[in-house]
Write a structure and sequence with these properties.
The chain has about 625 residues and is α/β, with parallel strands linked by helices. The protein is built from 16 helices and 22 strands.
Length: about 625
Amino acid sequence: VLPNLISPLISIASLEMGAVLMLLGELGFIGIFIGGGAFAELQIDLPPYHYSDVPEWGALLSNVRVYARSYPWTAIYPTLAFFLSILSFNLFGEGVRRLVESVGVGINRLFNRYTFGVAALALMAVIWARSNTGSVAFYRQQAEQFSGQNALAHVQALTDPALEGRALGTEGVTTAADYIAAQFEALGLQPAGEKSTFLYRRKRGFEQLTAVPQFSLDDGGTPPVYHQNYTVYPGRNRVLGEASGTVRFITTGPLQATGFGRSNLKALKGMAYPDDILMVLSARDARYLENVPHAGMLVVADDESVLAKNHTLSNRDPVDSAFGTGRKTGQDAPVLWIDTATADRLLAGTGQTVENLRLFSQRLLEDQLIDFETPHRADMSVQGNIEDRFVTYHVLGYLPGSAGQSGANGANLDSEMIMVFAQYDAPTPDADGQIRPNANNNASGVAVMLEAIRTMQESGYQPARTIMFVAYSAEGLEGGETISTPPNPQKMLQAKIGFGSSFTVKAVVDLRGLGGGTGDRLAIATGGSQRLGDLLEKSGRQMGISTVRADDPVDFTRVFAERSARESGQEAPQISLFWEGSEESAGTPRDTFDAISPETLEKSGRTLALTLMILGREIEY
């Protein structure tokens, strides 16, 4: 039967290859394609132009829809490539079909146990040769010098009780920055901070709790427990004050604005509940209603693990002048996250549950609301102080690339930069007085970074590209805005005079939670960079370490960040590296030094070291 099927199978396979190419072209035209890239502005009044990290044909078509009138020729080459390839597959299939029908092929002679055996041996030989010869094999031997015990020693130093968990607002965060700077110097890095130092001074604002937040209900049940049933909500603005009143439930569909800002939302015009505590289902609803007069607010948590975590709170003043009007909007009011069980207690007697209301809210049309009063009252209190100018530091050092080696475009590789980031600070101390060591999140990331530097330096590795290492502070607000994680690469280059114009950032690697987790694999969040993700997976296989592709890790320590699509675009291919399940203990008292595994640190570090060695020298990877 098989000889009779070979001819139509070849034709079908060739036609399907053409169909797949057609589908890739269609998806690329609407902006869906393999790999990632970065955005750059061609002109101020035009949308950003996408530069593909993996320049496949579908990605090259991604800009055509936006720039078809201004730059119509950009579509010629990728569409021509698609056309010729699809035509070639069809002609190839038809030609092979005719050849088989007219000449015939001895299937049993071509495909038997001997030919399969020879092919398997040849494939095994190629795989062995690629793994054990060439520069990658040499890098692998160097990367194997990474020591999990050395990295563990850095974790121990960074989780010393004297550092107070490296929490923002404590002296420990400055001590940690000094420790990392001293390690950079001892490891032979060049300073990339201000005034020929490793430090880049910044000022942060935040809200510091001075007492454990209070919350109680009038239903006669068990009192809600802090960090179990409720916690302070890290919204856009400060959340201070006391509230006592009837709980009113509100949720909305998409809301239409009649002017600039949330104070002009059409469906909320005239709404005011100055004596009520509002209960909402999401952060979106909380943002919509922040300017509606209210005594306090309760936000039902989607993921209840956030209730056990510590959070950095915003210091932004909620009482601000509405744009162009001179009138004030917003007010100081306490805001708490609560769990579903507590929310259902407040809904008792209404005939509704959180589950039902979530289903209803998903069906709401534009400007539709669900708004009703519950039969229960609540009391809540959040007390704290505002800090506007707390001094913290980024720590920056670099390994200079070796001059003289040119890349594919003829430019010297030492003008290209690889940036490695790891956050070292942690949310502000909690009012319960319990110190969170923050060992895995993120002393482990900094420790792996430091040991990777030692591995490269002591193995004699010399990068062709410049590699910068940044231990950064990301808690609180800077100039009233949140700090991106990892920070903007170009802003980091501004710390050292003349640095910003000297380098092109080729890749960004962010490290977080590399000392353990509930899983047994190294997780890779590509952030849109397929090429970097493939490289890290290959490095993991080379080191015998299992990896898994994952979504970008969600940082539940703050939810007040709001960025436009342009602001959230990457300036360079970016990837995040963390151990599977590491986020579950982040920000909780369970994140201790005892939970860190030196074996996990070693697996993570060896994969990172091999990846950096390849990125630092290889033109093609």
